[in-house]
Amino acid sequence: MKEIKKITCIGAGYVGGPTMSVIAQKNPDVEVTVVDLNHARIAAWNDEDLDNLPVYEPGLDAVVGEARGRNLFFSTDVDKAISEADMIFISVNTPTKTYGKGKGQAADLKFIELCARQIAAVAKNDKIVVEKSTLPVRTAEALKNILENTGNGVNFHILSNPEFLAEGTAVTDLHNPDRVLIGGEDAEAIEALVNVYAAWVPRERILTTNLWSSELSKLVANAFLAQRVSSINAISELCEVTGANVDEVARAIGQDSRIGGKFLKASVGFGGSCFQKDILNLVYIARTYNLHEVADYWEQVIIMNDHQKTRFAEKIIQTMYNTVNGKHIAFLGWAFKKDTNDTRESAAIYVADHLLDEEAQVVVYDPKVSAEQIYKDLDYLGTRSPEDNRRLVKVVDNAYEALDGAHAAAILTEWDEFKGYDWAKVKEGMKKPSFVFDGRKLLDRNELNRLGFAYYAIGE
Ligand code: NAD
Ligand code: UGA
């Protein structure tokens, strides 16, 4: 079997960057090149100051610091990297389609197809092409078609190797994965990729399947995880009207080893670039095959999640005497979860949008998200003019400044630092009554009540 000496990854994003950094770290004899069309992103990956990497992940700076320049390279020369590689990972974005057939549900595969066409045009020797992006089941068939019909007589083996890392814990997830999944048809190609991972992952955790099982398993894993969050969030609403406490319920059911304790944390709603996108994709695929009950079943996970975000915003309005017009609401957190600078589909965006419709004055503080990104997220919704977003929303780089003079604080992301604030001091600076709406159940209710806050948390 051919030994893999050079790996190229197309797409230097949240998956391509960290994944390839760890592959390079653990395979010092393999040269790994990550390429992207986005020059600014590549420049940031090459920045001498490791604090400026384009993706914030705990521990990533050390991994990049170890491998970059040794056997890990970031480049914008896509053609060169394709032509030199034995194995090519495709790790480009696969967003939900915003136009045409399947708009709002199907995955947009235009970036994947462009990669396939470029590989076909450039390749002069045999290549293993690895789908790292999350793709609809049977995409490998389309890839194979493009590669074989526009190629130059070169052999391509296609593998599916979906990524299961979660943002905020990407490096530990990559170092110690529950499993690595490899789907394919060609035994030698599969073995070549198994060997790359076997440099640090125990063999029994490297699962091999057929292509279609691998592609589908990725969508199903995300659907199951998101379903648990929507399930506990549905129960959080019931807890609020019955006097039960959702954390206590989660603990009680999670102790049952058949259920398990993970992913039962009630919240203001799940966000992130993938849960919603991948479920919508699953729903679309089911409908394409006329499996309407299957589609409706999974769609409900999204409906519940949208309800949770709306419900949180409405709770704020209703509690503050049915009007937030002109009221200063401090947002603690904008990222979709802690320990990441990623804001894609963050619940904070939708909660803010709802409050801004009511003319609230929102002041945002997030330890890792820039003002530029926050305005970009709001402008992208197209709900109001960019001028209105800037009139109603202020972004500050200090939480105490955000909270000073506020009528209410809303916790949207579970950043650890929020727990350590001097809440007595915060209270002094806030308007009275001082409301705290805890969308992450992060703070201690007894302590906040003792300090005199009007404290509301999801599911209590
Ligand atoms: P991303 O948007 O952060 O990165 C994708 C990158 O690909 C971008 O930098 C873009 O410029 C680049 N790109 C697009 N087309 C290109 C082309 N033709 N040539 C060169 N570069 C190109 O996306 P991401 O979060 O890294 O996700 C990538 C894939 O991985 C998606 O399919 C996603 O569903 C999946 N995934 C993401 C996560 C996650 O935590 N973000 C986890 C598992 C799987
Ligand atoms: C998720 C999966 O966990 C990864 O396995 C997968 O690879 C990835 O999607 C992907 O395909 O993109 P990620 O979205 O990065 O990872 O982060 P999660 O930890 O799954 O959190 C997703 C959202 O659910 C966050 O908004 C989080 O706050 C929320 N969540 C999670 C809860 O509200 N409660 C929980 O108990 C867990």
Automatic annotation (TrEMBL):
Pfam families documented for this protein: UDPG_MGDP_dh (PF00984), UDPG_MGDP_dh_C (PF03720), UDPG_MGDP_dh_N (PF03721)
Top-rank taxon of the source lineage equals Bacteria
Record keyword NAD present: yes
Could you list this entry's UniProt keywords, alphabetically sorted: NAD, Oxidoreductase
Task: List, alphabetically, the Gene3D superfamilies matched.
Answer: Cytochrome c1, transmembrane anchor, C-terminal, NAD(P)-binding Rossmann-like Domain
Annotated ranges, domain UDP-glucose/GDP-mannose dehydrogenase C-terminal: 330-445
Catalytic function, reaction form: UDP-alpha-D-glucose + 2 NAD(+) + H2O = UDP-alpha-D-glucuronate + 2 NADH + 3 H(+)
Under the heading SMART domains, the entry gives: UDPG_MGDP_dh_C (SM00984)
Q: Work out whether the entry's keyword set contains DNA damage.
A: no
Q: Which InterPro entries match?
A: 6-PGluconate_DH-like_C_sf, NAD(P)-bd_dom_sf, UDP-Glc/GDP-Man, UDP-Glc/GDP-Man_DH_C, UDP-Glc/GDP-Man_DH_C_sf, UDP-Glc/GDP-Man_DH_dimer, UDP-Glc/GDP-Man_DH_N, UDPglc_DH_euk
Q: In the Enzyme Commission scheme, what number(s) does this protein have?
A: 1.1.1.22
- Give the metabolic or biological pathway: Nucleotide-sugar biosynthesis; UDP-alpha-D-glucuronate biosynthesis; UDP-alpha-D-glucuronate from UDP-alpha-D-glucose: step 1/1
Segments crossing the lipid bilayer: none
PANTHER family from the entry? UDP-GLUCOSE 6-DEHYDROGENASE, UDP-GLUCOSE DEHYDROGENASE/UDP-MANNAC DEHYDROGENASE
Name the family.
Belongs to the UDP-glucose/GDP-mannose dehydrogenase family.
Its recorded name reads UDP-glucose 6-dehydrogenase
Name the source organism.
Sphingobacterium micropteri
